[in-house]
Here is the input.
Amino acid sequence: MEGPLKPAGWIVERLRITHEGVPVLLGMECAECGEVMFPKSLLCYQCASEQVTERIFLNPKGKIWSFTIVYESYGNVIGLNLPYPVAFVELEEGVFVQTVLVGFENKLPEIGLEVAITFLPVGSVGDVKEVVYAFKPIG
Ligand SMILES: [Zn+2]
Here is the structure.
């Protein structure tokens, strides 16, 4: 994607853009039990420890765990043409990411299909493009 990018305001705690211009999701890891979480949580999902402040970059690839098709959208901030698919993608860490799927304009997603993170532009401020994350088929 050309030009400078920045995460849209509502996902600024979930998405980072590397110096190479690659999207990465920010996860949390429990210092007590090692549970990896997404998005940010004040307590460990597994052991309720508060020692979850360490941020880690999550794997950029995963598999579609479940999906549905959005036919109506209230306040379409993402700006996609309806209908479009959304999914839970399971990353290698065992983390589930709720996400829009792109690249499925002419076909249905499939459970278990491998997908990778990508940018989805949602607007611009001056010459800076605001982006959110989405997942797309690999290959
Ligand atoms: Zn824990």
Q: What stands out?
A: The beta strands are 5-7, 15-17, 23-29, 36-37, 54-57, 61-70, 84-91, 96-101, 114-125, 128-137.
